[in-house]
Write a structure and sequence with these properties.
Pfam families: TP_methylase (PF00590)
Oligomer: single chain
CATH topology of the largest domain: Cobalt-precorrin-4 Transmethylase, domain 1
Distance between the termini: 51 Å
CATH class of the largest domain: Alpha Beta
GO molecular function: methyltransferase activity
Protein name: Methyltransferase-like protein
Organism: Candidatus Symbiobacter mobilis CR
Strand content: 15-25%
Number of strands: 10
InterPro entries: 4pyrrol_Mease (IPR000878), 4pyrrol_Methylase_sf (IPR035996), 4pyrrole_Mease_sub1 (IPR014777), 4pyrrole_Mease_sub2 (IPR014776), rRNA_ssu_MeTfrase_I (IPR008189)
CATH superfamily of the largest domain: Tetrapyrrole methylase, N-terminal domain
Number of helices: 9
Strand order of the largest sheet: 3-2-4-1-5
Order of helices and strands: EHEHEHHEHEHEHEHEEHE
Structural class: alpha/beta
């Protein structure tokens, strides 16, 4: 059980979760998360999350490997406001300090997103920023981060890279952004990484193949950590001859560079 609150603040743990959100056959939890991460998640009573339902489903899976120290029904769960999901929660005018009241009272807390590491390509940075402002220790736990897994398996420059988030939805703006980022890659050697909502995978992929120079190396990594995981990186010229079997349902990471 959590210790009784003391004069010191609790710790905010950044708890990664598997990348199998929405899968009909989830991966075995202990194949993608270390036992230490599962033990920490199992003892926490206070949580900040993207989606309470997803959090409880994750903790139900944790309980099958490491028994929870308190029933699911007794957990204190707070969801990040929906507008933070849509607009991003890194803006300076967002105050997440009230969400950390349990930590201020000495309780350890967990921050979790729906897939992967919170605060990376997902909401949560405002909570981490608030923790630093309040003197609450922040401890990131070990688990999957799709961008890092994709980069490591790509053969692209791994010592100089940028995660650029999502490309514009507008087709013209998207092409302009791809050209801008390719110019950066050519000038500096910096690998460019982006993600997309799965149902826009195909349009994003087609724009990349059509827009990038033929000798630019283009990465696609889909279904990471899943049985059907696929990571391939070839010059664009290759992709124009041998299309990738990317689908509109599986999360993917795209990257390009020298």
């Amino acid at each position: 059980m959590n210790a009784e609150p003391s004069g010191s603040p609790g710790t905010l743990y950044l708890v990664p979760v598997p990348l199998d959100l929405g899968e009909t056959q989830p991966v075995a939890l202990d194949t993608v998360l270390p036992l230490g991460t599962l033990h920490t998640a199992a003892r926490l009573r206070h949580w900040v999350c993207e989606n309470a339902r997803s959090l409880r489903a994750f903790l139900h899976r944790v309980d099958a490997v490491v028994p929870l120290q308190q029933p699911l029904q007794s957990l204190h769960v707070v969801e990040l406001p929906r507008e933070w999901h849509k607009k991003g929660d890194h803006a300076g005018n967002i105050d997440a300090q009230p969400l950390l009241q349990p930590a201020r009272e000495g309780h350890d807390m967990g921050l979790v997103s729906e897939a992967g590491m919170p605060a990376i390509a997902d909401p949560g940075s405002s909570v981490v920023r608030a923790a630093h402002a309040l003197g609450v220790p922040v401890v990131p736990l070990v688990g999957p981060v799709s961008m890092m897994l994709a980069l490591a398996a790509s053969g692209l420059h791994g010592q100089n890279f940028a995660f650029v988030g999502y490309l514009p939805r507008d087709a013209g703006q998207r092409v302009a952004r791809i050209r801008e980022l390719e110019a950066v890659a050519q000038r500096t050697g910096q690998t460019q990484l982006c993600i997309e909502t799965p149902y826009r995978n195909l349009s994003t992929w087609e724009a990349l193949v059509r827009t990038l120079h033929s000798d630019t190396r283009l990465l696609v990594a889909s279904g990471l950590t899943l049985p059907r995981a696929c990571v391939q990186c070839h010059p664009v010229q290759h992709w124009r001859t041998y299309p990738h079997s990317l689908d509109a349902d599986t999360p993917a990471v795209f990257g390009w560079g020298a």
